[in-house]
Amino acid sequence: xxxxxxxxxxxxxxxxxxxxxxxxVEKYIRDVVKFKExxxxxxxxxxxxxxxxxxxxxxxxxxRSINSMLSSVNALFEYLDRNDLKIKTIKMQKSVYCPEDKExxxxxxxxxxxxxxxxxxxxxxxxIETVCSTGxxxxxxxxxxxxxxxxxxxxxxxxxxxxxxxxPKELKRKLLRYSKEQNIKSGMIFVTRTGKAVNxxxxxxxxxxxxxxxxxxxEKVFPHNLRHLFARTFYNIDKDIAKLADILGHSSIDTxxxxxxxxxxxHRRLIExxxxxx
Length: 278
Hints:
Distance between the termini: 64 Å
Strand order of the largest sheet: 1-2
Radius of gyration: 21 Å
Number of helices: 14
Largest sheet: 2 strands, antiparallel
Strand content: under 5%
Shape: globular
Order of helices and strands: HHHHHHHEEHHHHHHH
Structural class: mainly alpha
């Protein structure tokens, strides 16, 4: 079996038909194309697939990145009904805390909002606040409409599931004021000049442009980290991981656990509080 452009396009269509987010589709296809380039259009055999993992190790990718890329390729094999070619991922122990240089802090979030305001980029400032205060995905911003802002609740439908997203009073006020200023009387609030929904790439780029102005590391600044900040803040108050999973739209609590994992500094403080050194 060879991996052809036609197969990749069919796989892309399959992912879209199964309600995968735009970002997920983009990632899967990018990883599959990388595997196609590695195989040099040769016949794919079990040995070829297995060696790909070793190739990624030699290239210096992290274990997490390698497993992520292998998951994409395995999804393709599953789609092609070739489970015999699936590649075993590298076993790794789950981390009990996340690196401090990866997670966005509340103070850094506030600095990003201030920087967007200083640049008079009202849309970006409001997008950052909306994602961080509701926990929705960038791809779900299209459900933030004038109508939903008036109700104080957005109805989000994704991957065959529907959930209700509460819009805080202060955010509701800001959304309605912004839509009035932009002469948006109905429908989506966050749109481009052509009236299309804003996409993740544009928001990511605009957020990155704020980094040097506020002294925040660029690797910390991407839309999904705002969801992580929402999750950690919510969990610190409520401590109900099942409720948080529902709010975030996760089908598995294991996914939610990744969002609320404490930073190294918090973990260190907890260990020090134990005072078990006599």
